[in-house]
Amino acid sequence: MATIKQVAERAGVSVATVSRVLNDNGYVQLDTRKKVEEAIDQLGYIPNEVARSLYKKESRFIGLLLPDITNPFFPEMARGVEDELQEEGFYLLFGNSDESLERELKYIQTFVQNNVVGLISATNLADKANYDNLPIPTVFLDRGSQSEYSVYSDGVEGGRIAASEMIKRGSRKITVLKGPAHVMPVQERFQGTIEVLVQANVDFQVISLESLSFQEGMRRAYEIFEKFPETDGIIASNDTTATAILHEALSRGKSIPDEVQIIGFDDIQQSSLVFPSLSTIRQPIYDMGREAAKLLIKLIKKQAVEQPHIKLDVSYVNRNTTRKVK
Amino acid sequence: MATIKQVAERAGVSVATVSRVLNDNGYVQLDTRKKVEEAIDQLGYIPNEVARSLYKKESRFIGLLLPDITNPFFPEMARGVEDELQEEGFYLLFGNSDESLERELKYIQTFVQNNVVGLISATNLADKANYDNLPIPTVFLDRGSQSEYSVYSDGVEGGRIAASEMIKRGSRKITVLKGPAHVMPVQERFQGTIEVLVQANVDFQVISLESLSFQEGMRRAYEIFEKFPETDGIIASNDTTATAILHEALSRGKSIPDEVQIIGFDDIQQSSLVFPSLSTIRQPIYDMGREAAKLLIKLIKKQAVEQPHIKLDVSYVNRNTTRKVK
DNA sequence: TTGAAAGCGGTACCAA
DNA sequence: TTGGTACCGCTTTCAA
């Protein structure tokens, strides 16, 4: 790997001059610049970003913290983040926290140690202490509006929509899934749903979920159909649990959506591929990632931020686990 | 952010001594160490990895290059890589190449500029030039055995298994999908399949795919059912295209698996969630990621590598798009 | 318009 | 057992 010094020698100038042509600042005579550029070409020189980062106390890296990339919700989000960053010349350092506060802290520390210039976090931590007095801006993704900077979608409204679609489409004995307490956006959905259900005065039950996994969905689905066999509509916490419920219903010979309607939340890719395809509340997952990156870049560049909390709209996606509007 | 110098001052020792306690090498008197540790605690000091990296000419980062994390095949792989790395104290720098040679090169360059110590690449590049005389070891993932170090699964055998299961389960007019020429592992599957089909002397057609996307799968599915309505078995290039074919078949009222059997390849998560659930050839995706990371770490540590090419086994997963063995 | 040199925050060699 | 210091590769100030 060639260094700036070698380039300088070859071009017969000082390193300062090379640095000037590299960064295109300060005065450089045209022919001097030419000589330098030739030397750079000949040596195949690329500047060492580590040295730059050390001096400038900042890198081109942004840290992205996710609960688990294996959860189909997150790849799309990560892609949104990356696409936006990439356009702005930033790069991604990435870690799965796996719901471990310790692992999360470890990643944050490593990020900071490496002069990362910003952080995007989509973890579900109960505890914000990990993020206190960080020397870099942080944007929280998909976690409601409680933090200083955040990008999220309108969970309460999504929950409302789910409930009113369910009612509109004829369900009268509804079971609502309540996601784990520490997952903020899932609580908001739940609230929105309950609000509408209470107002409309329809019968409903609540089943609590310990996690948002497929397996937990299966377990609870079993419980639902055993305890509340008369249920004719299920509002799930997310698409993964909705899919689990769909499976359990199908394997019990329930006709979907005729006997039971199901509405999910998120609109992950696979929701259109299950059978029957899943009606759901769509979050603009990719855009959420993109917006978070945009906001973070503004913060990094110290540009004015008009909206520290960006709330994106959700919408109902009508597929085949719900009936026609009556 | 405290620096080593501040720690040294506070502890009343030299930076050299602080460095020694930090790295736990060289002689340090017990009470000196105590003083230093106290100073570190009081200042909340964490060493700057950038400075370390500059001096040592290596970081704790490994670059991971993927075609597209949004493709459900890759998250699991990335997770395998990360889990292994994390245990060894390495971190992940990550980029989606998006099938663009240029973008790929850009990422590789950035990785190198940042003293990354190793590279894992799962892209489909036709062109290996991007990887020539890199100063760091590279492991190629899911790309056959042609490169110096590689981790992949036995595609040829997988293709054979798919064909023989298809025949065993009664299909006699088989359509085989042929993935894009530049995607190596997909070609191997194809070869294995053809080999068995020819040997068994059964009727078959080949349909070429321009990509492995769901949309392309839909297009070709249409073509298959129009051109070869008598097809009674379809061997897809991967699970995504298999799922597309399943949809098209279902929407044409074909009974699956009675009229047409379908076998996919990969066993991505969603394959067990589609309906009917997809019979497929399972690749150990997570383990592939993990093995690649293991191999790379060996290379980085300059440990002996007995196996530069690691081929993992595939297996048939019997689900509901295939019939009982006759 | 150019170059010399200090400094970013560590590590490691050598001398004390 | 400890400290002084050169050095990693770059940027930037200051002087020429």
TrEMBL record, chains A, B:
Domain HTH cro/C1-type: 3-46
Lineage top rank: taxon: Bacteria
GO molecular function terms attached to this record: DNA binding
Short name of one Pfam family: Peripla_BP_3
This protein's UniProt keywords: DNA-binding, Repressor, Transcription, Transcription regulation
Key word Metal-binding present: no
Domain called HTH lacI-type: residue spans: 2-56
Name this protein carries in UniProt: LacI family DNA-binding transcriptional regulator
